[in-house]
């Protein structure tokens, strides 16, 4: 089995009479593919709903307790570890502990869980090295310059602490963070999300509706007349997770959090709808098919399976067949050797993939980070 | 550097949505018709696992890059309208030591922007590197495309490819000659650097080179458009 560096997640999910994602004119977002206009859900829309989901598998429901014990050692080990001479490091340590963890930071048990990734650690480490070098072996001077440093950079460090505190730090570790003017502080998102699109040509209906004012003293009549667009669609969704990239962003907490994050992400992708118009369209759907692939070859979407639109009448069966056929063709041409699991509402199999429930798929994904060398 | 024996990697760029970002002004992010020098540099660097901060290496790679492209299927433009909910209190730490905040007063209003993509396009790129012996070599890049350090994308992060990008090798003396080896069945629109093939239909200047030390784009190069 190849090293599971990349987790690819493919889904087919059906929504009926909904308006999931609109453009600036209020109409459904669209995409022309294979000459046929489709309806589309943007990656931003999908990610936002996975990020903010109030769900048993919400990202913020992930327990950071185990990670906490490791992240409390962050300054001691990652920022100051190995630096010398000892008296100088001892002199600046309380300042760094307070800067990173807040005023109670000198007490280990009072420290909160922080998701410092490579970026933050590199900057703090660089600053610590600079202060130690400037002290020239004088512990008293080191303590003073460190105090001044903490004061000068107070706002910056506070911004950093805000960014890495749980649960917000967790979504940044997954979906990235951008500081326009400073690429060195940016977090590269390890989760890549394609825009989802219907496997068939668009099915759109202009929904004419009126609202009646029942309390009006006048003859009851239409109080408002409006129109909205509703669409039906079976959507192909595609997500890639860069496992080493995720571990980098999670820093020392990766060992505890990577697995639970992947576990919950698989659930969220399968179960959380990119819903709009919740009250009037109930756009709640679960994936009818989900295929997970783990491997080390260049990730590629299976969108081409649907470049020829699946006839609307063929439905989920037609889409599953198209995906199965395309996957077999890709295997025959490129033999990329991914390890696969799938769930499906249909009784047909996918090439090289073992069938499971959503729980089994999520558990399988959660076990992948431990297999990375 | 020339000679009929020059090796060219062939890249296949194919996706429901892809983008060759041009210079954006304000909230509008247009796409070019042809893949750009900085975009390909970033793509290869991503495969190699380089970081944004590897500025000297990125610059050296861009400087060595020699490439052209042809279109097997022209993509229509898709303009995606994006909204982001930002708050005035949003700020991010920086390596300069002072946090970066947000200016402007339009709050609770969403931050709106437009991004152009090419739909259903299919391109082939031929590329080689000057100073063939230097690292990374063409072989190393080819291997990195097969097993990249990170997932690869075509211009923007949601533009995920439908095929392995690496699509073999050709040989030829010029970019144009290498493109001609690809044998498109019908005449294909193609682009190659000026003086790296015939004159073509027209020449125009493209601003697709990044000055990696600053992160900004600067300068232009002359690109020939024609058919093969």
TrEMBL record, chain A:
Q: Which InterPro entries does the UniProt entry name for this protein? A: CRISPR-assoc_prot_CT1975
Protein name in UniProt: CRISPR-associated protein
- Please give the NCBIfam families that the UniProt record associates with this protein: casC_Cse4
Q: Which domain of life is it from?
A: Bacteria
Automatic annotation (TrEMBL), chain B:
The answer, when asked if Metal-binding is one of the entry's keywords, is no
Q: Where is this region: Disordered?
A: 87-107
Coiled-coil annotation: which residues? none
The Gene Ontology biological process annotation of the record reads: defense response to virus; maintenance of CRISPR repeat elements
Tell me the leader sequence span: none
Question: What top-level branch of life does the organism fall under?
Answer: Bacteria
A single GO molecular-function term is: RNA binding
Keyword Mitochondrion applies:
no
Q: Name one Pfam family in it.
A: Cas_Cas5d
| UniProt entry keywords in alphabetical sequence | Antiviral defense
Concerning InterPro entries, the annotation shows: CRISPR-assoc_prot_Cas5 (IPR021124), CRISPR-assoc_prot_Cas5_N (IPR013422), CRISPR-assoc_prot_CasD (IPR010147)
Task: Spell out the protein name for this chain.
Answer: CRISPR-associated protein Cas5 family
Please report the organism this UniProt entry assigns to the protein. Dinoroseobacter shibae (strain DSM 16493 / NCIMB 14021 / DFL 12)
């Amino acid at each position: 089995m190849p090293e599971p560096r990349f987790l690819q997640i493919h889904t087919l999910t059906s929504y009926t009479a909904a308006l999931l994602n609109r453009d600036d004119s209020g109409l459904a977002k669209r995409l022309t593919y294979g000459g046929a206009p489709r309806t589309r859900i943007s990656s931003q829309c999908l990610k936002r709903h996975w990020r903010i989901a109030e769900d048993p598998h919400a990202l913020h429901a992930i327990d950071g307790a185990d990670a906490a014990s490791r992240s409390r050692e962050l300054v001691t080990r990652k920022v100051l570890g190995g630096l010398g001479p000892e008296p100088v490091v001892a002199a600046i340590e309380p300042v760094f502990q307070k800067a990173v963890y807040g005023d109670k930071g000198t007490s280990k048990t009072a420290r909160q869980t922080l998701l410092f990734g490579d970026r933050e650690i590199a900057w703090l480490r660089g600053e610590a090295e600079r202060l130690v070098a400037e002290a020239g072996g004088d512990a008293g001077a080191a303590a003073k310059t460190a105090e001044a440093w903490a004061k000068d950079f107070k706002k910056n460090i506070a911004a950093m602490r805000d960014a890495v505190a749980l649960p917000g730090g967790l979504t940044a570790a997954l979906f990235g963070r951008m500081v326009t003017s400073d690429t060195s502080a940016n977090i590269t998102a390890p989760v890549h999300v394609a825009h989802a699109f219907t496997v068939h040509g668009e099915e759109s209906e202009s929904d004419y509706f009126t609202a009646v004012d029942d309390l009006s003293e006048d003859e009851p009549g239409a109080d408002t007349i409006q129109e909205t667009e509703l669409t039906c669609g079976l959507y192909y969704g595609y997500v890639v997770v860069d496992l080493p990239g995720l571990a980098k962003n999670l820093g020392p907490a990766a060992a505890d959090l990577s697995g639970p994050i992947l576990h919950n992400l698989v659930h969220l992708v399968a179960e959380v709808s990119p819903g709009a118009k919740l009250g009037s369209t109930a756009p709640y759907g679960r994936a009818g098919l989900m295929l997970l692939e783990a491997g080390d070859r260049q990730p590629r979407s299976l969108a081409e399976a649907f470049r020829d639109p699946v006839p609307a009448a063929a439905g989920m069966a037609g889409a599953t067949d198209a995906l199965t056929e395309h996957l077999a063709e890709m295997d025959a041409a490129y033999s990329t050797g991914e390890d696969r699991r799938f769930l499906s509402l249909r009784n047909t199999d996918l090439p090289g993939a073992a069938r499971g429930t959503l729980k089994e798929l999520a558990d399988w994904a959660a076990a992948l980070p431990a297999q990375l060398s | 550097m020339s000679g009929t024996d020059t090796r060219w990697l062939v890249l296949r760029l194919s996706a429901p949505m892809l983008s060759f970002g041009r210079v954006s002004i304000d909230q509008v992010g247009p796409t070019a018709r042809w893949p750009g020098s900085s975009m390909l540099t970033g793509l290869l660097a991503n495969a190699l696992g380089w970081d944004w901060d590897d500025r000297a290496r990125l610059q050296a790679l861009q400087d060595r890059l020699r490439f052209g492209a042809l279109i097997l299927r022209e993509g229509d433009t898709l303009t995606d309208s994006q909204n982001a909910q930002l708050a005035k209190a949003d700020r991010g730490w920086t390596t300069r030591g002072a946090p970066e905040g947000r200016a402007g007063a339009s709050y609770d209003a969403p931050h709106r922007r437009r991004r152009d993509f090419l739909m259903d396009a299919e391109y082939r790129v031929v590329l080689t590197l000057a100073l063939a012996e230097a690292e990374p070599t063409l072989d190393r890049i080819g291997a990195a495309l097969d097993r990249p350090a990170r997932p690869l994308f075509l211009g923007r992060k949601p533009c995920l490819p439908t095929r392995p990008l690496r699509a073999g090798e050709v040989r030829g003396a010029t970019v144009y000659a290498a493109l001609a080896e690809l044998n498109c069945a019908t005449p294909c629109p193609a682009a190659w650097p000026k003086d790296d093939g015939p004159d073509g239909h027209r020449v125009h200047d493209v601003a697709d080179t990044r000055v990696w030390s600053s992160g900004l784009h600067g300068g232009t190069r002359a690109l020939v458009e024609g058919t093969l």
